[in-house]
Structure formats: C-alpha cells, structure tokens
Amino acid sequence: MSGISIVVVGGGFGGVYTVKKLAKKFKKNTHVHITLIDKHSYLTYMTELHEVIADRVEPDAVQYDLQRLFSHRKNVSIVTDEVTGIDKENKLVLAKNGQYPYDYLVLSTGSQPNTFATPGVEEYGYMIGSFEQAIALKHTIEEHIRLGAVENDPAKRKSLLSIAVVGSGFTGVEMIGELIDWKTILAKRNKIDPSEIKLSLIEMTANLMNMLDHKDAAKGEKHLRQHGVEILKNTTVVRVAEDYTEFKDSTKFPTATLIWTAGIKATEEAQTFGLKQGKAGRIITNENGQALDQTNIYVLGDGSFTDENGSGKGQPQTVQGSEAGAVVASKNIALSIAGQPTNAVFEGKYSGFVVSIGSKYAVAQVGKNFHLSGFFAQAVKHMINIIYFAQITNAYYLFKYMQHEFFNNSNERNMFYGYLSRQGNVLWSVPARLFLGATWVVDVIPKLSGKNSWFVNKLRLSTFDWLLTNTTSGASAAGKDATATVTKTVKATFSLSYQYGNQPMLIFKHIPKWYYNITKFMIPNTDVAFFMQKAMTVFELLIGLALIFGVFTWLSSAASVAFVTIFSLSSMFYWTNIWMIPIAIAAMNGSGRTFGIDKYLQPWLQKHLGNWWYGKTKSSYK
Q: Residue-wise over 70-97: b if at least 16 C-beta within 10 A, else e?
C-alpha cells in the first residue's frame, strides 16, 4: 500500500477533534499520515473569548498550542500556513507558503461575524470572531471607560460609558453577562459609580436566547434585568456611527462601544475552495459529510451546511455540531481507506444547551426535559468543557483550564465566589508549614537511632496483632512489649489538646475491620513489617524536611494527610494530633513558593518537563 495523506484544514474544535480521532484510528497504520493546517499555531477556545474580553481570565487561557495537543502522535504533522485555495484536479491544498497533497481532505474553517451589510458595523462596531478581535475589544472597553470617567461633556461621557451588545444568541448573552461582572471592577478602577456604566442588549426579534426553552430563556432574561442590563427587543440596528447607533425607527442610541454578535457566516476562505455554497456562504454537504460531487472532501463545523432534517436551516453552528461532523468524517475516511462504502451518516444529536451569564450564573437545558439555572447550570457548562478535553485526550490543557477558571482568577469571578482562588496572600500559611514540618522531624528523630530506633528488626507496629504471634528472634521481645501495651487498660479522655493527668484518646480504639483486612494482606509477615517501618521512617523524615525547606510542598502536605490517615486507621494516632490534617491542607495553597525552594523549583520543572514531554512551543510550525 502506498502512503495515504489526509489533510485537515482548520485547527478549531472540529478540526482538532477530527485529527484526534483519525490519529487514534490509524496509530498502527504507518501508511496513513495526517497533516493539520491552520494559520495560527494554536487552537482558540472560541466559546470562552468573552472571558478574555472582560478580563476574567488571561489571554493564554483560550490558546492551546497545536503541537502540545499532538506532541505524541507520530502520524500527525502540524503546519502553520494560510490556505488560499484547493486544486481538486491534482488533489493539492494551496497555501501562501506551500502546497500540500491530499488523498482525503477535511475542511473545518469555522465562521466569521455576519454584519448583513449593515452600514458602519465594519468601521465602528466591534466583533468577537477571533482571538485578535477579542484582545482589541478588551483594550477598547478599558480605554473608553477610562476616557468616559474624565469626560465632562454629558453627551460624550454617556456615549463612552455605554456598552451595547447586538444579538441575544450564545455569544451576545454570554458577553453581556461577563460585562455585568466586569462593570463594578472597571468603575472602581476609574473611580466612578458603577451605575454610570450602562449595559444594553439589543435584539431584533421578540425573544431572547431562541436556542433555549422559553422558561429557561425567561430566567436568563430576568437575571439580566436584575443586574441592570437594559433589554431592547424588536429593535433593528440600521446604522452604526462612531458614538451612536441608529435604529429602524430613527432613534439614535448613544454608545461608542457597540459589540456585534447578530450572526455568523462562513469565512472568506471558504469562497476560495470552489465548492457549492448555501445559506450564509456555508459549504453544502450530503448526509455523509462530503462536499457535493467531491467524495474525498469532507466539510464540518460552522462553515458546513448539513440539512439532515430537511428544514432548510442546516445544523446548529455549535461545538456539538462540529463534533458530530468530525465523527462522521473520520468514520467515512476510515471506511474508504478500508475499501468499504462510506455509509456513516451525519446525526445532529444535541444533548442540550447552556448559556453562562457571568461567572456565577447560567441557564441550561439538558436533554428534552431537564432544566437547570444558577450554580448547577454553571457546573454543567464547565463539565462540557472538561468533557471536550477528555475527548481530545489532553490532560495538560485540562489542568490549565482548571487553574484559569477556579484557582488563578481574582475578584471572586468563578462559580465558587472565589473561595478556591489562590490569588490571596499565602505568606501567613508559612508558619503553619514550618511547624508541621518541624512536628514530623521531631517525631522521627528518636526513630532514627538508639533504643527506640525503627531501623532494627524489632517490631514497632504493635497494633497489628497477627504479626505478634509470628515474631521471632529479635522481634519476640517487641511482641511481648506490644502485648503488654495492648492489654494495659488506661482510661482515655477525648480532647483536642493535651490535659495534665489524662490519657489522650485514640481516634480509633481498634483498627476498623475493612482496614484490618487490607493491612493484613499488604503486611502478611514480620519481614514485610520490618521493611515497612523502616520505609515509613524515611518517608516521615523526608516529608518533614520538604515542608521546612518548601520543596514539593503540595505533595508533602498531601503525604502528611495520607500518613495521619494511615496512623489513625492503624489505631496509632490520638485526637490531640488531628490538627495536622487541616494544617497540611492549608499548607497546600502554595506556601512553598513563599520563603521556600518551590519558588524556583516549580517554575523550572514546569518549563523543562513541559518542553521535554510536549516539545517547545513555537509561533509557527513547518
């Protein structure tokens, strides 16, 4: 078999998902190679751009390097180039910097904002069709609020401090919702009253969020109104100027920041492919995901028009639609390579829709009859994103997503109201870290040498009674001592601190039966017991030293919790020492980066281990 080349154009949701599925399917077939071409070296997580615009997360939170996504896929090549057309006769993808032969071609070029030729939108409106547009809009909002705060002319001040969003689809509602959160921060930063920053949502129809059930949409609308958003329904924008927007009824609405989210269309790139286009320039495909009259060219995502139900509307332009297209394209390509009929059919199965309105609230429709709002709907939104990372099998960016969304953001802008954020001062947890480390070291010092040493063949795990009867030679004495300890009855007093004259109470007077069975299996005889008590002594010393010097603090703190749990279940730990668990958890908040070696070690490891495992990221790939 000669080599087979599959070229995927577009590194968005659908393109990346397609490559992942193809790479997995053909990982043992050395004759098949996949090339992913995109004009950027990264995937832009388009559904979260509103978070970047409103300064909830850093810009790199929505940029996922393509090389890191496919670093261990030997049958995948990443190319950074701008596609200019297709030579279908010679099976070539034409681009600015080269030509790429293909046997099978997948087009997933996405979409761009549709202005519907409304005058002034291109010149004075702002759109969210790309990462670059998002960054530009963020800076524009900051600049307009800054200028408006010091403007004395009432008309100019009102225009600069007014932000309007046109369109109440996913993008528009999520954008206005994010601005609700940001408005207070911007006002405080510029020393003005938040009420001066006016937010408006403009919709040309009678309903908001038409993709949702009416009851869910009504909840979302109520939330917007409660947070001061002016909602203008049945309002059509006919012209956009520098400092105002004109409606169909000739009303001039003052705003210097009009964000256009009224619709999308296929990219201009799609027009260069020479394939039949339909509604909004989307390339028409058959039920198998193939472009008309081109059985080896598949089109998916926002730029495709698959009308599987005959409604004339085509599939919804959502991530779920892109994934459905990726599934059918990868299946049919695999069938074709195997010499079988390409009979996989596009199925637009949509498990539901979620619209987030700010960082803490959302409305969701899961399936046909399950409706959520508030915290749980927001949890569903995050779960959908997490599932996507699982689908493209990338733990690195899943971890980064969790950091950006829950642990590294400020101003309480996450669904947990900032309670999980690490943006607080961790200096005050350093004494707790040092004290915890010192406790372990002080506890372990007597075990290193002398009559109480744990490095001699003398049984110290006295609560494991099945070992006592089997102990021989040097361990027999320990068995007698341990037996005496077990049989001695002293009244124990519950307390969380030591009390003079009272015996501290064990957390577990007897080992729980389930843990007893596990431990008996893990430590069946004295030889294993002697090894374990020596190993535990070494680990206890390492944990203490690591905490004192701030090395791998998170792991050392987690190990502290684990050791305390083990000692407690083994009936070897007292209530008076249970403080070690909450202190260890507190030390996990990054205290090693303050007066600790982790300040230098963790960034160094992240950089070098990341480059070793994923390869060094570049601005463009050849």
A: bbebebbbbbbbebeebebeebbbbbee
Q: Is 387 exposed, middle or buried (0-12, 13-18, 19+ CB in 10 A)?
A: exposed
Residue 131 near residue 63, CB atoms below 8 Å: yes
What's the pLDDT at 487?
Answer: 45
Q: Decide: helix, strand or coil at residue 153.
A: coil
Q: Which residues contact 505 (CB under 8 A, 6 or more apart)?
A: 492, 493, 494, 495, 574, 575
Nearest to 11 by CA among 403, 398, 401, 392: 392
Contact 299, 321 (CB under 8 A): no
7 pairs with which residues across the strands? 35, 105
Residue 2 is predicted with a pLDDT of 66
What digits encode the pLDDT tens for the residues 66-78?
999 998 889 999 9
How many Cβ atoms are within 10 Å of 113's Cβ, its own excluded?
22
Helices of type H across 86-241: 121-124, 131-149, 154-160, 170-189, 214-226
Q: What is the structure's pLDDT at 350?
A: 77
Give dist(CA 553, CA 597) in Å, integer.
9
What pLDDT was estimated at residue 425?
66
Helix 580-587, helix 553-569: angle, nearest 10: 160
How far is the C-alpha of 291 from the C-alpha of 271, rounded, in Å? 13
DSSP characters over 337-395: HTT------------EEEEE-SSS-EEEEETTTEEEETHHHHHHHHHHHHHHHHHTT-H
Residue 317 confidence (pLDDT): 85
Residue 481, pLDDT score: 45
Distance CA 121, CA 124 (A): 5
Evaluate if residue 486 carries a pLDDT over 50: no
**What is the C-alpha separation between 184 and 200, in angstroms, rounded?**
16
